[in-house]
Amino acid sequence: MATEHVFPDSGAKVATAAPAEFETEKMSVSMGPSHPSTHGVLRLQLELDGETVTHCDPVLGYLHRGDEKIAENMTYNQFVPYTDRLDYLAPLANNVAYAIAVEKLANLKVPPRCEAIRVICCELARISSHLLGLGAFAMDTGAWTVFMYQFTEREKLYKLFEELTGARFTTSYTRIGGMSRDMPEGWTDRVLAFCDQFLVQLDEMLEMLTRNKIFMDRTAGVGIITKADAIAYGLTGPNARGSGVTVDLRKDRPYSGYEQYEFDIPVGVTGDSYDRYLCRGEEMKQSVRIVRQAIKNMPGGAWFAEDARKIFAPRKDKVLTSMEELINNFMIVTEGPQMPAGEVYFEAENPKGALGFFIISKGGGVPYRMKIRSPSFCNLSILSKVCTNNLLSDVVAILGSLDFVMGECDR
Amino acid sequence: MTASADVTATLQGKFPQTTPRASGDHPAINVPLSEAVAVLTSLRDEHAFDFLVDVTGADWGVDASPRFTVFWHLFSTTSHAYVRVAADCTNDTDPVAPTACDLWPAANWHERETYDLLGIKFSQHPDLRRILMWDGYPYHPLRKDFPLAGIDTPLPDLEVGEITKATAKPAPMVGGPFVASPGEINLTEAEPRAKDESWTERREKPASE
């Protein structure tokens, strides 16, 4: 502590640890909005004492597009493409969450085949999102290879998505009461083939990190979030489960037929960045398990709800031959699917956490108010607490481990 | 006591002024604004609703009274049930609600967002700043009297605005997917194809200006 050091050339100068003489000045650093480790446009207003963060104030809103305002001004089906742009790393999962929320309002029951397709969509989206989260996290902590490896796997997934939905990235696959179309022929076989080789690839990726000395030094014991804090700050998804909160809406409040599938929920112990990484790695393996079960037990039949005729646009061949269907189609397109009045809240277990839609309807084709509860927004609210008293370089590791998407956070 | 569907009935026994609220799914209650924090505390401590999912608000229109309602959504990590609590704001021009920051730190950002977008203030909030719009933005965009296109507003950086004379302009609405309110926009005008570029035998090609 108070060691005396006499400089050889000037014997008069004695350096002590006396705070009065060596009072340090705190430095204010603006990290982001364009910073490789803030994954988009998050800005952290940091106050540093040397290398230690003494205060962290996240600044949001750089990607705010007013999605909730837009939702109030368009029909329910027109909003589906906007859900792609919430968590743009898992658009399929957002599509499904939104569709189920509106179906809950409309009191619609979709057939089992539709539910099974949606489950496959959600789980493939989870794999795709976790892969990027993993790769970006590894890159933030200095491991470049994983990033390249995971993009190879994501490319394969995107090929499958393109085949299924017609788009690689902005899928807009679901409609209120169904999907835009059925799965193409032979698609499930290609998904199974992907799953088989993916598990091998995933193990290779995880092997590069799990017992990696550098990676462990950077992440283990860094950014610890206690279980109580995770609940108090509203954390969901792998970030909450990494802290030992055993909440997974797929198990706790099953939707879309999740109760039929067998899968485990990985839960962390210490709640540090390393645990969150482990949770994501294991979740991908569980997702493969669910996808395999869903494909094995894929029910036949309709892939959209038959009683959704006033909501779901009729098939084109019927529209062009039947007058009644033509009128129906015209009404749905111009005035939107007619919904009952009411208030519903639905949240789904998305890759990043619980994505919720709170819809207030006064009837008609347009929601009166739609609130989007985005998991990234809630997960980031703990940032000022968890970053304080950590090193600046640890902030990068913590951000990587929280795996957020600003498109969803700012809406 | 576990969280269950009859939580609203139990709460009504304890807080006689609460009334059940119509809901499409989860149990929901209306509470007077003054008792909101007490009800939330009771839900958290006695009914195991330990997880604050969401705080938000709704604007029922310029002429409505009460105009603003605040919603809290709670979740129980043990019984996995939801409950919705709604409280009408008493003041229509300057709505104020009590903060739940002392109960859940998660409420901090949700309340900042509600203040930012709807203009509902939360008394005793430790740090009530805008969160999504920039500091000094003059409007609350989710209010019903705020137009979808936006309003011409000075830029966040006033110096830049002074030199460049640039402002945050309203977005063009023509041709968009938005539902046209009656009398506001004509479909023929809104549809870009029908606007001018197309011509038929009956309609001559418009002269280019």
Distance between the termini of chain A: 50 Å
The CATH class of the largest domain in chain B = Alpha Beta
- CATH topology of chain A, what is it called? Cytochrome-c3 Hydrogenase, chain B
**Class from helix and strand fractions of chain B:** alpha/beta
The CATH class of chain A: Mainly Alpha
Beta-strand content estimate of chain B: 15-25%
The largest pleated sheet of chain A is described as:
3 strands, antiparallel
Helical content of chain A stands at 40-55%
Shape of chain A: globular
Shape of chain B: elongated
For the record, the CATH architecture of the largest domain in chain B stands as 2-Layer Sandwich
Summing up helix and strand content along with how strands pair, one would put the structural category of chain A as alpha+beta
Helix and strand pattern of chain A: EEEEEHHHHHEEHHHHHHHHEEEHHHH
Please characterize this protein's 3D structure.
The complex is a heterodimer of chains A (about 400) and B (about 210). Chain A has a single domain, classed as Cytochrome-c3 Hydrogenase, chain B, CATH 1.10.645. Chain A has about 400 residues and is an alpha+beta fold. Chain A is built from 17 helices and 10 strands. Chain B has helices at about 5-15, 35-45, 105-120, 160-165, 185-190, 190-195, and strands at about 20, 30, 50-60, 70-75, 80-90, 95-100, 120-125, 155, 165-170. In chain B, helix 3 (about 105-120) links the parallel strand 6 and strand 7 (about 120-125). Chain B has 2 domains: about 5-130, NADH:ubiquinone oxidoreductase Nqo5 subunit (Beta Polymerase, domain 2), CATH 3.30.460; about 175-210, no CATH class. In chain B, the strands form 3 sheets. A 5-stranded mixed beta sheet of chain B has the order 1-2-5-4-3. In chain B, strands 6-7 form a two-stranded parallel ribbon.
